[in-house]
């Protein structure tokens, strides 16, 4: 997950997307996070195999929700709960956006440290301030606009972290810094989440004690698929696919590694991931038809060379 959410562009909601036409075109959006780049690309791959055209726009979370409300976006694969509740609450009661399926369980999002730092006694948020010198009073986040919780903790002097610097860059920038400091066994505290290949590329430990800010179970979360109001009934075959697309942490971490470590595009990673786990197609495509009424499973297997 690329966490949390940039509000840049919230005022730039214009008619850059085509007006709703029919079910032949499926319009998706994702915020530029690697996990959602992957799951959205898997969705695109399957939809295109069914004969649909797809269009994906990379937009900030507020823009995605406003665009869905305006019927300019059909589906969004990445509602992280509870991390995104404050963004979704404004649309929940109106019914303009429908949450139709939990596509991932077992996700988490909080702070982590390298294992050697954990073994030195830093097990929780409350342990950080006693080691301010070792950490150089720095906390490492990702892109600006995505570190609001971390900044809130510092601004409130929670855990004695007032006056610490929040270093904002990007997902890759943060992980590059983790790699540099880990090689020298220097200390670093940073945003970490699963699914993500960082959990196997680095030896890290998640910190306890952040429940009031990130939620219980190390920021434990589910990820759900959302659609604009009425979309499932308007486009039942697409809707059925969206309610059957379920992932797991290991699967997503593998696919994200293809993007982050191997330099693949989202669609390249999606095709490789599906080819490596063809058994997933039996679940994802059960009872699904192509746009011209054929059984989707053999058509898509043929398209993927399986």
Automatic annotation (TrEMBL):
Keywords assigned by UniProt, alphabetized: Signal
SUPFAM superfamilies, alphabetized: Periplasmic binding protein-like II
Domain ABC-type glycine betaine transport system substrate-binding per the UniProt entry, residue ranges: 26-275
Pfam family, one: OpuAC
Record InterPro entries: ABC_choline_sub-bd, ABC_Gly_betaine_transp_sub-bd
Signal peptide: 1-21
An annotated GO cellular component: periplasmic space
Keyword Methyltransferase: no
Keyword Signal: yes
GO MF terms held by the record: choline binding; transmembrane transporter activity
Biological-process GO terms, alphabetical: choline transport
Protein name as catalogued: Choline ABC transporter substrate-binding protein
